[in-house]
Amino acid sequence: MTSIESQARDDAAMPQDLIDIGNVVDFDENPRCESPKRGTTLSTSTSSFEALDPHDPNLSRLANTMFQKTGEYLQEELTATHAEYRLLERLNNEAIGKYAELKTIASNVSHVMVALNSKYKKLQPVLDNINEIEDSVTKLEQAAYKLAAYSKRLEAKYKEIEKDGKIK
């Protein structure tokens, strides 16, 4: 018998004094809320299954198998989730370690940069003097080339004058 047929049979067998004018059932006196072995319960289920009642062994075996498989499935899901969380935790710990290492490296680089900037500021006047000296040397070289060219011209004129003076 299906649960719908069982429900219809229970409704037909319900005493008329439990039904009021608005067809609302008083749940305090509803026989469907009573367990045959335990008395009144809060459940409104129409199942006639009782744990200690004899029932179909095939159904019992299938139910046990279903609960076992469901338990195994849930256990595997929890195991997989736990493994994923452990992996995530390891990844987070590795990332924390790498970031700490990078922070140390960045801190060291920062200290070295501060030291180099300080040295550069101390050497700046010397570097400015070197640049001025380089400019002066460049000007002196140009003057020396001009002087060398002028002296060659003078020498050429002198030789020309000397040559003209011997000939006359």
TrEMBL record:
<feature type="region of interest" description="Disordered">
    <location>
        <begin position="29"/>
        <end position="55"/>
    </location>
</feature>
<dbReference type="GO" id="GO:0016197">
    <property type="term" value="P:endosomal transport"/>
</dbReference>
<dbReference type="Pfam" id="PF10046">
    <property type="entry name" value="BLOC1_2"/>
</dbReference>
<dbReference type="GO" id="GO:0000930">
    <property type="term" value="C:gamma-tubulin complex"/>
</dbReference>
<protein>
    <submittedName>
        <fullName>Biogenesis of lysosome-related organelles complex 1 subunit 2</fullName>
    </submittedName>
</protein>
<dbReference type="GO" id="GO:0031083">
    <property type="term" value="C:BLOC-1 complex"/>
</dbReference>
<dbReference type="GO" id="GO:0099078">
    <property type="term" value="C:BORC complex"/>
</dbReference>
<dbReference type="InterPro" id="IPR019269">
    <property type="entry name" value="BLOC1_su2"/>
</dbReference>
<comment type="similarity">
    <text>Belongs to the BLOC1S2 family.</text>
</comment>
<dbReference type="GO" id="GO:0032418">
    <property type="term" value="P:lysosome localization"/>
</dbReference>
<feature type="compositionally biased region" description="Polar residues">
    <location>
        <begin position="38"/>
        <end position="49"/>
    </location>
</feature>
<dbReference type="GO" id="GO:0043015">
    <property type="term" value="F:gamma-tubulin binding"/>
</dbReference>
